[in-house]
Write a structure and sequence with these properties.
With about 325 residues, the protein is α/β, with parallel strands linked by helices. About 40% of the residues lie in helices and about 25% in strands. The chain has two domains: about 170 residues, Carbamate kinase (3-Layer(aba) Sandwich); about 80 residues, no CATH class. Helix 1 packs across helix 3, helix 2 packs across helix 3 and helix 6 packs parallel to helix 8.
Length: about 325
């Protein structure tokens, strides 16, 4: 068994190429491409745990639930996260299975339906800002706020959407099982969508809550608890940039932890809706004893590992 452990966090959006390719089959095909790059890592001796986003997929489930509400019960948000963990996990692990067979690798992938504990008094519960689900006009939004108790907000001029809390992850409930599976050499697909958000009561019993945990923060916590030497976040760009899409845009090959913290503190380079949480997740990982991190696009994963592209962040 390899002693090198890496966590790879992939985005839910990376499984959807465009609006014409959103079906389950289309997402399966996109997952195959992602798995091809991950298997390249495994062939090079890495033991891998995979975290993934689920934003679009949860949106699809919520929309189906809304449309069917006249006949069937609606699906709670935390159950939607669980549903996507199973469905996306299935697509990833089947593609990995087929890749392992093709390359003659004695490896097996398994999906862990993962609960992630958040604090019941996390300030995010008082400030729900994470948009989910389909767009509405203002009248629909006000009706659902009154009828269903939703928090709603206007989303960047595109319409109104439901907004939910995005609390910080504090514990991966199935962490011990995940560590045992990694030690046994399994490829683990876990903390899907940031994990199913749960809180603990005074006696320690868990219950699901209507929230969305950032998948990069959850993957960072995963990398810490399994002692990963490498934390990779794949995204829509090949490298991280300062002054992104500005005339003085500067692409970065390397950042130190101190530089990453400085740029985050300046608040002008890494937007909260895109690169900000990724950089913060890596800062958290490195501050908890992590080795190094890479941000790059999925199709450049092998080149980034070889030091040819991507942004590498180290102590």
């Amino acid at each position: 068994m390899s002693s090198k452990v890496a966590v790879v966090a992939i985005g839910g959006n990376s499984l959807i190429k465009d609006k014409m390719h959103q079906s389950v089959r289309d997402q399966y095909i996109a997952a195959r491409e992602t798995c091809d790059h991950i298997v390249s890592m495994i062939k090079d001796g890495w033991n891998v745990a995979i975290g993934h986003g689920n934003g679009p997929q949860v949106g699809f489930i919520l929309r189906r639930s809304e449309l069917a509400a006249h006949e069937l019960h609606e699906v709670p948000l935390e159950a939607c996260v669980a549903d996507t963990q199973g469905a996306l996990g299935y697509a990833l692990q089947q593609n990995l299975y087929n890749e392992f067979r093709e390359w003659g690798l004695n490896k097996h992938a398994v999906t862990v339906v993962t609960q992630v504990e958040v604090a019941a008094d996390d300030p995010a519960f008082q400030n729900p800002v994470k948009p989910i689900g389909s767009f509405m006009d203002k009248e629909q939004a006000m009706h659902r706020r009154q009828k269903r108790g939703w928090n709603v907000a206007e989303d960047a001029g595109r319409g109104w959407r439901r907004v939910v809390p995005s609390p910080l992850p504090i514990r991966i409930v199935e962490g011990e099982a995940i560590k045992a599976l990694i030690r046994a050499g399994f490829v683990i697909i876990t903390v899907g969508g940031g994990g199913i958000p749960v809180t603990a009561d005074e006696s320690g019993n868990l219950k699901g809550v209507a929230a969305v945990i950032d998948k990069d923060y959850a993957s960072s916590l995963l990398a810490t608890i399994i002692g990963a030497e490498l934390f990779i976040i794949t995204t829509g760009v090949e490298k991280v940039a300062l002054n992104y899409r500005q005339p003085n845009e500067t692409w970065l090959d390397h950042l130190t932890l101190a530089q990453a913290k400085q740029y985050l503190a300046e608040g002008i380079h890494f937007a909260q809706g895109s690169m900000g949480p990724k950089i913060q997740a890596i800062v958290n990982y490195l501050e908890q004893g992590g080795g190094e991190a890479i941000i790059t696009s999925p199709n450049n994963l092998e080149r980034a590992l070889a030091g040819e592209t991507g942004t590498r962040i180290t102590l």
